[in-house]
Structure formats: structure tokens, C-alpha cells
Design goal:
mainly alpha, about 70 residues, about 60% helix
């Protein structure tokens, strides 16, 4: 399997890659900012584990927002 260089991609694929990258960056940043600002008693589990998990793309930030925040 041969690697495709950035210069060989068509414009639509480049925009798609950039869009997905921006979404991942925004999600990760939002999760980390929320994690820092939220008191520990409002987070399920250790904050450090959620911070590390936020870098597992794209599942980490989504999992934090779906399961890491206490809503009771």
C-alpha cells in the first residue's frame, strides 16, 4: 500500500481532512477546559484519567462529555 502525499490529494479531500482535524481539536480543547474548570466531585472517576483519555481521538472527548460528567 502506497502512501498518498498531501500535494496529490484533491481539494475536497484536503478540506475534509482539515475539517475533521478542526472538529477533533475543538472537541479536545473543550473537554480539557471543562475538565479543568469543573470541580472533582462533579466528574466521574479521576480527572487525570479523563485528561489522558481526551487525547484518544475521537472517542476520548466524546466519552468525557457523555459519561465523565456527573449530572445528578
Amino acid at each position: 500500500m502506497e502512501r498518498t502525499r498531501w500535494s496529490e490529494l484533491d481539494t475536497r479531500k484536503k478540506y475534509g481532512i482539515v475539517a475533521v482535524s478542526v472538529v477533533e481539536l475543538v472537541l479536545t480543547t473543550a473537554a480539557l477546559v471543562d475538565l479543568v474548570r469543573r470541580p472533582a466531585d462533579q466528574v466521574r472517576g479521576p480527572k487525570l484519567a479523563w485528561a489522558a483519555g481526551a487525547f484518544i481521538q475521537p472517542i476520548g472527548p466524546i466519552a468525557y462529555f457523555a459519561a465523565g460528567i456527573r449530572r445528578d
